[in-house]
Design a protein that fits this description.
The chain is α/β, with parallel strands linked by helices. The protein has a domain of 149 residues: 3-Layer(bba) Sandwich (FAD/NAD(P)-binding domain), CATH 3.50.50. Helix content is 27%, strand content 22%. It is built from 8 helices and 19 strands. Strands 3-2-1-7-15 form a 5-stranded parallel β-sheet, covered by helices on one side. Strands 11-10-9-12 form a 4-stranded parallel β-sheet, with helices on one face. Strand 9, helix 5 and strand 10 form a beta-alpha-beta unit. The longest helix has 20 residues. It starts with a strand and ends in a 24-residue tail after the last helix.
């Protein structure tokens, strides 16, 4: 009997996991479930918000001939006892589940905008287009998403009054060199910075909320062990600690890196957790040795519009080093990272599965469940 693997979500984590599984397990039935028919470059959604066109990558085209079955449907529930996924297109049964539904914006106030998803970024773009010269835009949230959003908007619309509200210090976690460059760019772009904001009222015609992310509530509604925030608790192989036939990757997982440090929500965490989970599943199903968890960070690359950036080098446990790359050199690094992440999705013959006309017959070892 063919082993059925269902991957929920086709973001950076889910798409990479599905492709890697197909490359490792030619005898498995792999189904990738996603609500959107296209792969969304989430790390570029601030560009979408300012009206920039991104390359369209349809999942059917990406996975054509690979053995991965793409199913466009919205996940509504997961029954981990019956091993069934409920979608708006019907039930999907699984033997192994890879949960990669990711995250969305957290606690967005009424009338505020966000860029946590493609449609949200498109709504913000439509609103900014309606905003005339001299209009006011406030971006709230001092993390990477907020910095990239506010600089992108300020560069694309120099006719607007753009401001940035942070609870602490602008780029306070970065090295001195990176912080100094950040302030220089904000000054050049004319961005007003409100630091130490806590309960203060700041008027704006358009508010963009980037103050944190939250995982989808589906996992918390199951009997899976989750954190208070709803992330699935996993072991070093990204395997649920309560349900061994479920793996969680990317933002949906409460996972640790090779040094034992919890991983942050990011593409930089999503792709390596996807690779590790896929390799662990393949190893268990084929009787091979389990891989090692060596996940660690190298840097945090922050775009500051299309013409500037900061590459902050970090330790494997994500602590900033004194060194950083700024300016055009950092722009090239950032663009390479974003392009490579999307390239890994749209080139399955290289980094993902080899193209095949059909899925091969399941081997005897695959008949054994995890």
């Amino acid at each position: 009997m063919t082993h059925r693997i269902v991957v929920l979500g086709a973001g950076y984590a889910g798409a990479n996991a599905a492709g890697r599984l197909a490359k490792r397990l030619h005898g498995a039935e792999i189904t990738l479930v996603n609500a959107d028919p296209e792969f969304v470059e989430r790390v570029r959604l601030h560009q979408v918000a300012t009206g920039q066109d991104l390359k369209v990558r349809r999942l059917d085209d990406v996975f054509a001939g690979t053995g991965v079955q793409v199913r466009i449907a919205r996940v509504t529930a997961v029954d981990v006892e019956r091993k069934v996924v409920d979608t708006d297109g019907g039930e999907i049964a699984y033997d192994t589940l890879v949960y990669a539904l990711g995250s969305t914006a957290s606690d967005v106030p009424e009338h505020a905008y966000n860029i946590a998803g493609k449609q949200a970024a498109q709504r913000l773009h439509a609103r900014l287009e309606d905003l005339g010269a001299g209009g006011t835009v406030l971006v709230v949230g001092g993390g990477l998403t907020g910095i990239e959003a506010v600089t992108e908007i300020a560069e694309a619309r120099p006719d607007l009054h753009v401001s940035f509200a942070v609870r602490g210090e602008l780029g306070g976690w970065l090295s001195d060199k990176a912080q100094q460059h950040l302030r220089k760019v904000f000054d050049r772009l004319g961005i007003t910075v409100h630091e130490g904001v806590d309960g203060r009222t700041i008027d704006a015609e358009v508010t963009v909320w980037t103050a944190g992310f939250a995982v989808h509530p589906i996992a918390a509604a199951t009997t899976l062990e989750v954190t208070a925030a709803g992330q699935i608790v996993v072991d070093d192989m990204m395997r649920s600690v309560s349900h061994p036939d479920v793996y969680a990757i990317g933002d949906a997982a409460f996972a640790h890196g090779g040094s034992g440090t919890p991983l942050r929500m990011s593409c930089a965490s999503g792709v390596p957790t996807a690779h590790l989970a896929a390799d662990a599943i393949a190893a268990r199903l084929t009787g091979r040795e389990l891989p090692k968890n060596k996940i660690g960070y190298n840097g945090q690359c922050i775009s500051l519009g299309r013409n500037d950036a900061v590459m902050q080098w970090v330790t494997p446990d994500d602590k900033p080093k004194p060194s950083a790359v700024t300016g055009k050199a950092a722009v090239r690094i950032k663009e390479f990272i974003c392009t490579a992440a999307a390239w890994s999705i749209s080139h399955p013959t290289v980094l993902m599965p080899s193209r095949r006309r059909r899925v091969s017959t399941a081997s005897a070892v695959l008949e054994t469940a995890l």
